[in-house]
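User: For a benchmark we're assembling, each entry needs the component sequences followed by a predicted structure for the full assembly. Here are entry 17's components. Please fill in the structure.
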Amino acid sequence: EPEVTQTPSHQVTQMGQEVILRCVPISNHLYFYWYRQILGQKVEFLVSFYNNEISEKSEIFDDQFSVERPDGSNFTLKIRSTKLEDSAMYFCASSQEGTDTQYFGPGTRLTVL
Amino acid sequence: SQELEQSPQSLIVQEGKNLTINCTSSKTLYGLYWYKQKYGEGLIFLMMLQKGGEEKSHEKITAKLDEKKQQSSLHITASQPSHAGIYLCGASYSGNTPLVFGKGTRLSVIA
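Assistant: Structure for entry 17:
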């Protein structure tokens, strides 16, 4: 069964460093999302991407964040200069045109020291 | 107030017992999703409800949508240790839009 994959599963970085989180959505899906979940808190929306551009973003998604679909399969989230409060699980999700069900990847646990 | 209220926050049940988790939206729903999450892991899609009165089942898990109350209930029959985890409801308010999640219900099933 097709699934969303994410790499790495765990990333540890120093404050101020740049990180890139990678996702491979399900192959025929056209809508892509990033969410995050700070430990013990709700899953929160960051950004959605459709037709090679951002379709919606939350107030969390500030200038430190960017997304890219560099080729036909990968979808990346970049954090330019990480802060301690960026420590969280980051989930990628994708959905098909015509259906709304979002399928989530296993997540990347980001730890900022 | 919260856009999506989920209750209870946590639940401990004995193996074999039935249980219900509720999710109520303060806005008109387009779709209501149920996911299961093991601690520190990804979200596993269980089912999606869109139409009022709709009821879906996945193994021993059944979910219903009450359109009047903008509420969904998730019911587990004869709970097993494999049902343990965090159940999350997510709401969409129009098509192909980001989901808003509840705080989750942590379910423990004891032998």
